[in-house]
């Protein structure tokens, strides 16, 4: 008998960069997940299914065992406070960095060592709080769900914490990077119970993915 394995992942970058990786690991969805409206997709491997969910929901599905495995950005994992989740493998896709950014005019004369209190707009409230608390800097955090780059332009905040890859979005909005918080990439995570109950099946899938990353 084969052991069913569910992999949770999100549309957008993770799926776009994850599909070629899964393909190299010998896993191909039977229909195009970028086009399909289905939320559970079969693959060429009868035991492996892909569950398509929002990026920030991946850790929740995996923690509660609704998926055995998940693919989630380190940013999402850093922000998630649940347990029962193992970070198994850096998949080295969807790579970017989490940064503090501010208006260019301010950045040219700003020194992160002189910060005492900051007003920051971000989607990463807990990570931002943790980062600055560790440095003894107080923060007033404004929670947003996207388009953080807009906040300093309209006076909502002085600074933002967001992901940066090419830097094009910052540049287009007159912002500059001023402090690095973390390097980000997508990780393969596993449910703790699945690791025990489905050890063999998981191990072989993780091995294939490990080779696909290398
Ligand atoms: P949603 O649209 O549901 O709010 P999202 O914006 O997090 O989700 P994506 O933009 O596809 O969805 O990002 C998924 C993951 O890809 C992020 O969690 C992050 O790890 C990574 N990522 C985000 N932006 C970039 C980027 N510009 N370059 C590279 N990787 C990125
Ligand atoms: C992400 C991120 C930045 C941008 C950075 O947004 O939140 O806004 O990419 O990439 P860059 O440095 O290459 O410009 P995304 O494109 O995912 O938009 P959304 O999440 O707000 O939909
Ligand atoms: Mg995004």
UniProtKB/TrEMBL annotation:
GO terms for cellular component: cytoplasm. Pathway: Amino-acid biosynthesis; L-histidine biosynthesis; L-histidine from 5-phospho-alpha-D-ribose 1-diphosphate: step 1/9. Keywords: Amino-acid biosynthesis, ATP-binding, Cytoplasm, Glycosyltransferase, Histidine biosynthesis, Nucleotide-binding, Transferase. Its EC number is 2.4.2.17. It comes from the Bacteria. GO terms for molecular function: ATP binding; ATP phosphoribosyltransferase activity. Residues 54-210 form the ATP phosphoribosyltransferase catalytic domain. Its main location: cytoplasm. It catalyses: 1-(5-phospho-beta-D-ribosyl)-ATP + diphosphate = 5-phospho-alpha-D-ribose 1-diphosphate + ATP. Lacks the C-terminal regulatory region which is replaced by HisZ. Catalyzes the condensation of ATP and 5-phosphoribose 1-diphosphate to form N'-(5'-phosphoribosyl)-ATP (PR-ATP). Has a crucial role in the pathway because the rate of histidine biosynthesis seems to be controlled primarily by regulation of HisG enzymatic activity. NCBIfam families: hisG. Belongs to the ATP phosphoribosyltransferase family. Short subfamily. Heteromultimer composed of HisG and HisZ subunits. This is ATP phosphoribosyltransferase. It comes from Sulfuricaulis limicola.
